[in-house]
Design a protein that fits this description.
The protein is mostly helical. Helices cover 66% and strands 3% of the residues. It is built from 16 helices and four strands. The strands form two sheets. Strands 1-2 form a two-stranded antiparallel ribbon. A two-stranded parallel sheet has the order 3-4. Strand 1 (113-116) and strand 2 (121-124) form a beta hairpin. Helix 5 (166-175) crosses helix 6. The chain starts with a helix and ends with a strand. Residues 185-198 have low confidence and may be disordered.
Length: 513
């Protein structure tokens, strides 16, 4: 009974996860109060399902078959060491997650000031100064609930990805059964399937399905944005005209800010290429020399990667275009190095794919993008330099615990050089804004989490994966982290959710022995 309920919880987790993946970008980037509430409550549901699974395992003693799990004491010591390292990884990362959430919670419960929105007056309150505190407790509470939702998503997705499906368990069992004395066609097919399980390029069913959903959803999102830009409509999804950024060139797809759309898509297309490369290698291995070009399901992914990689240029986002082009060269170098040696058709085809992405993006968006890039080179920063100049003293005045998560927009008005300057609600530099709102104490905790996740493939256990998969994922995450230095991707919940999902995928991968 426990095993059946556990499988139901896994099935519900998968359904809820796919809903989040599709809903979050299409709900106008999850920037409105109603869409933020939907994403948070659905994320809490995932957290509840995770707690239910843990309770079932503890109460009934049920042990789910999991990737990276070593149950046989006769297995070699390296596998046991990697499995132990994975357990320590999970414990340390869980402790850091709790630390960050507690930091936000204590900040909200320990207000240093009360802000009156009607009169824009800040009244000081006595607080405990050696604990995290906030200058706007309601804003910090909102940040806490969002970060709690992201924690639920990360740990739910990681637990779900590491679990083996019933089909994988049956395949693994057949892989170690002795061959029949008179092998027939059925046994040959079973052997072929089980050999794919043992292959270093095998992607687990759950990870493969999640990457498919991310890739297809990202491609459709990019296509819709391109069509909307060509149509000239200034209504998001042809439905709603936003209150800000009403010009066609400022929007892209469901996002009212073109840069946010490019940040989302620049995280998707490296995942699409990673899935394509893994499925292609697996298809070649299973079909041997009988496979034809375009015969495998991976062939669908290349057009998806082209349109998704070209969309940041069409969006005319300067930062998005620079990150996309830089990522193209990095991904092409990785794929060429990892591909078959001396295979000219593969190398030429891969170069053609990136030329198609660049050509499509340039043809549809270069006429609007080129003047913006020229203005950037001449020193036009869209007044970001003024925001940076005003924001840096905020970090200097609150170095250790910051001003409280979510409080940047509240305090920025008091740091303007003169009251006629615009009241910026974002620092357009997430690294600087995080240092302002979390201080060095909170920022170090966040960086420790990020360092653990990005380095986990090198030293801990999990799903065996060759180096190219985490490398392409690093390109995806690295592009967003670089873009965060000049914009605010992590202040948009749909982009933060995608980043957390990719981190959850990366946290499940392990280096091939």
């Amino acid at each position: 009974m426990a095993a059946r309920i556990h499988r139901w919880c896994d099935g519900l987790t998968e359904a809820v996860l796919y809903f989040l993946v599709v809903f979050s970008p299409w709900a106008f980037g999850t920037t409105q109060a109603w869409s933020i509430a939907v994403v948070c409550w659905v994320s809490y549901a995932m957290g509840f399902l995770l707690l239910t699974k843990h309770w079932l395992r503890w109460r009934s003693g049920y042990q789910q078959a999991r990737w990276g799990q070593v149950s046989d004491p006769e297995r070699n010591s390296s596998r046991r060491n990697r499995s132990a390292a994975d357990r320590w990884f999970a414990r340390v990362l869980a402790a850091l997650t709790v630390f960050i959430l507690l930091f936000c919670l204590v900040s909200a419960l320990n207000p240093r000031a009360q802000y009156f929105h009607n009169t824009r007056v800040l009244r000081n309150i006595t607080c405990i100064p050696w604990l995290p505190h906030s200058y706007d407790a309601p804003a910090t509470w909102l940040a806490f609930w969002q970060y709690l939702a992201m924690a639920c998503v990360f740990w739910s997705v990681r637990d779900w990805l590491l679990g083996k499906t019933r089909r994988e368990q049956l395949q693994e069992m057949s892989a170690f059964q002795p061959p029949l004395s008179t092998p027939d066609k059925t046994h040959s097919r079973a052997s072929a399937v089980s050999s794919s399980v043992r292959s270093s390029w095998y992607l687990p069913d759950r990870m493969r399905r999640l990457l498919w959903v991310l890739s297809i959803n990202g491609a459709v999102l990019a296509l819709e944005g391109v069509l909307q830009r060509l149509d000239g409509s200034n209504k998001l999804l042809w439905l709603i005209q936003p209150r800000i950024n009403r010009a066609v060139e400022s929007q892209f797809g469901p996002y009212a800010y073109r840069s946010n759309a490019s940040q989302y898509l620049n995280q998707v297309w490296p995942l699409c290429l990673a899935l394509w490369f893994a499925l292609r290698h697996q298809h070649k291995k299973e079909k041997r020399h009988s496979s034809r070009i375009g015969s495998g399901p991976h062939s669908v992914l290349m057009p998806c990667a082209i349109i998704t990689a070209a969309a940041p240029l069409v969006s005319t986002s300067r930062g998005g275009a620079i990150i996309a082009i830089t990522g193209w060269f990095a991904a092409m170098a990785v794929l060429l190095f990892a591909g078959p040696r001396g295979h000219r058709y593969y190398q030429l085809g891969l170069i053609l794919v990136f030329l198609l992405a660049g050509g499509l993006g340039g043809y549809l968006g270069w006429d609007k993008l080129e003047p913006r890039l020229r203005a950037m080179l001449s020193g036009d920063t869209s007044n970001r330099d003024i925001v940076y100049r005003n924001a840096r003293p905020m970090a200097e005045d609150h170095p250790w615990f910051g001003t409280g998560p979510g409080t940047f927009s509240t305090l920025y008005q008091y740091y303007r050089e003169n009251p006629n300057q615009d009241w910026s609600v974002m620092a357009h530099d997430d690294w600087l804004e995080t240092r302002i709102t979390f201080g060095w104490v909170g920022l170090i905790g966040i960086l420790a989490c990020l360092l653990l996740v990005t380095s986990k493939w090198l030293w801990a256990g999990g799903i065996p994966a060759p180096w190219i998969l985490p490398t392409l994922i690093w390109i995806s995450l690295g592009g967003c982290l670089i873009h965060a230095k000049f914009d605010f991707p992590f202040q948009v919940l749909s982009i933060l959710l995608l980043f957390v999902l990719i981190c959850a995928i990366l946290s499940c991968l392990a280096r091939k022995e």
